[in-house]
Amino acid sequence: VFSIIASVTNSGSILVTYSSKGSVRKSLTTCGFKVTKVPGPPGKFEMVRAVRI
User: How far apart are CA 52 and CA 14, in angstroms?
Assistant: First the structure.
């Protein structure tokens, strides 16, 4: 799924996902995104913000 998203996004595009699992972060990094953790909404410790490189 992330490879498809990467293929249709431009450099600088931002993707935010509720999931912060290591496998999600690794997949995004592999597909060309710079991944950072951001604070989540109430009840969720953190989320992932990924910027297409």
Answer: 6
